[in-house]
């Protein structure tokens, strides 16, 4: 398979012979050291609606983590933080801890674990997909067959659905009103907690 890629490139460049030299070879190293590569890193800043969606997804992740902690008495999850739930290995760690009793765990344990896995994917896709593809992914949640999850009924989930739709169908002016309402409501809630 690897040789096919090389052959394809050779054909497109009209090259008949290819010489492959390892980087650690002295001649190759001298050539590479004469002019170091210029690395230019470009990043696109997140829009305000993307930041609001990201915060809502993080809030829903915290909700699901709380559900998992309440539903599971077999494993000590008190020291697990939301930051750990965002890593891919989190699902495997929890599943390994529950391996001995996995066959006896019910939907109240398995569903939040699957929700956390999906929310991590949703958070990742917020940055990878364009607004239309992200909206389609979010809308597929609502139309999913048999997808019974409690986080879909939360206010934060509604914000994710609304802002994803507004990113596609509405101008920035109209959707900014919802974001302002969300931000001020979040500030009021944080003020109540303090």
Automatic annotation (TrEMBL):
Give a yes or no for keyword Hydrolase in this entry.
yes
Q: What keyword terms does UniProt attach to this protein?
A: DNA damage, DNA repair, Hydrolase
Q: Which GO terms describe its cellular component?
A: nucleotide-excision repair factor 1 complex
Molecular function as annotated in GO? damaged DNA binding; single-stranded DNA binding; single-stranded DNA endodeoxyribonuclease activity
UniProt KW Ribonucleoprotein keyword: no
GO biological process terms held by the UniProt record? double-strand break repair via homologous recombination; nucleotide-excision repair involved in interstrand cross-link repair; resolution of meiotic recombination intermediates
Listed name of the protein: Uncharacterized protein
**Protein source organism:** Rhodosorus marinus
